[in-house]
Amino acid sequence: MTSFMLSDTTASKISAQLTHLRHQMGSPAVGMVLTLVVVCDEGEQYDAVRAATEAAREHPSRILVVIGRDPAEPNRLDAELRVGESTPGEVILLRLYGELTEHADSVVSPLLLTDTPVVVWWPRHSPDVPAKDSVGVLAQRRIVDARPAAEPVKAIAGRARSYVPGDTDLAWTRLTPWRSLLAAAFDQPVGKVKKGVVEAAAGHPSAPLLAAWLGERLGAPVKVADSPGPGLTRVTLSTAAGDVTITRSDARLATLSRPGQPDRQVALARRPTSELIAEELRRLDPDEVYEAAIRRVARSHKG
């Protein structure tokens, strides 16, 4: 990985330097399939860049990391360029000072790859309406995460009010293995579900989303109950024949129980952020199932 620093620079100078580095290394910017914009602060950038870079192994990308610094400083743009030798992809750290902190789109827009999708990810602090954010408006896919919010469930409910096709939340992405396992649990008929319970650590934002998805899919009331955690710990779906349960005992395995069948151990690992981002980059079309889930959470939260 070759790194190059530019101080008090411009987007055009950054583009020129990228082209120079690529030619110098003999690896032109072909094969990159999208631009991933990461909007974060200095304290978050290390973990965010690491996750984005790992995700880019599956989806070669130009990664633009937008870091807002001191708005009281004179206007300045500093950049750090990292270009890989063995794999396609680029990482550009953009540190914005002064009024540029409020106009990140003017820096980002000239650096987007042409004729490829744009994805924006806010690892922690996200705008109330991502699609109307100056950077978010540039993207086809906008990724937020309710988990770090002060009130995660309230944040999920708020997503419904501001939802625009292309929005998604990592609190939803974390549910993919649970949803797959629950769907597989009904491959063999077990009868109509009468009610359900999703147990999770208090305030865990994925819990009401999973309950909403189950309620929508099964046409039965599914409530959320607190557990010691960590995260999601148990789903119980009650049928006339007995309960279907999934109980996660550790960070890797869960136990699936169905009426009239022996319990079995199933893989249900907690996934790193890089895998969540990689999953979201595989699907850039609107997620109607997520939309239905957040709207159901919003109705429940309001009630």
From TrEMBL:
Glucose-6-phosphate dehydrogenase assembly protein OpcA N-terminal domain mapped to chain residues: 52-160
Domain Glucose-6-phosphate dehydrogenase assembly protein OpcA C-terminal, residue spans: 165-294
One Pfam family in the UniProt entry: OpcA_G6PD_assem
Protein name: Glucose-6-phosphate dehydrogenase assembly protein OpcA
Origin species: Planobispora longispora
